[in-house]
């Protein structure tokens, strides 16, 4: 018998690569081709799809803060003063992420009214008179 020659399968050209599967950071992209005609006297073992990793610019990371602390004690023992509270930065903004808002807040406080003079000062004043 004459020798048989196999005719390979015919494939379309590869398609363009797809868009990356993500809009930022690491993802995947694919491309395909189609089987135009099967192989004669054999199998078509060619791959019809390929995938590869793709990398876009890093995703923005917004600033993250802890919860506010409790308000501090008033900074004076009498009269007008202020109290503060703070929060810490857990994650600094990166790659165009939202900036950190304030980390310290201050508010006014008033304890009791301050007395003009103590008992000793009043006695000295009376004695000096």
TrEMBL record:
Stretches that traverse the bilayer = none
Coiled-coil segments on the chain, per record: none
Keywords annotated in UniProt: Disulfide bond, Glycoprotein, Signal
Q: Which domain of life is it from?
A: Eukaryota
Q: Which Pfam families match?
A: TSP1_spondin, TSP_1
Q: Does the UniProt entry include the keyword Lipoprotein? A: no
**Is GTP-binding one of the keywords UniProt gives this record?**
no
Which residues does the UniProt record annotate as the domain Spondin-like TSP1?
Answer: 63-114
Q: Which GO terms describe its biological process?
A: cell adhesion
What cellular-component terms does GO give this entry? extracellular matrix
Provide the protein name.
SPON1 protein
Native source species: Sinosuthora webbiana
């Amino acid at each position: 018998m004459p020798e048989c020659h196999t005719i390979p399968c015919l494939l379309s050209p590869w398609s363009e690569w797809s868009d990356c599967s993500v809009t930022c950071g690491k993802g995947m992209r694919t491309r395909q081709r189609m089987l135009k005609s099967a192989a004669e006297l054999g199998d078509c073992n060619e791959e019809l799809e390929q995938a590869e990793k793709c990398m876009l610019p890093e995703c923005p990371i917004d600033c993250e803060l802890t919860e506010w602390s409790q308000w501090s004690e008033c900074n004076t023992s009498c009269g007008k003063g202020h109290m503060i509270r703070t929060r810490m930065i857990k994650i600094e903004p990166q790659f165009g992420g939202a900036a950190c808002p304030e980390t310290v807040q201050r508010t006014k406080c008033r304890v009791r009214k301050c007395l003009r003079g103590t008992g000793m000062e009043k006695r000295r004043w009376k004695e000096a008179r």
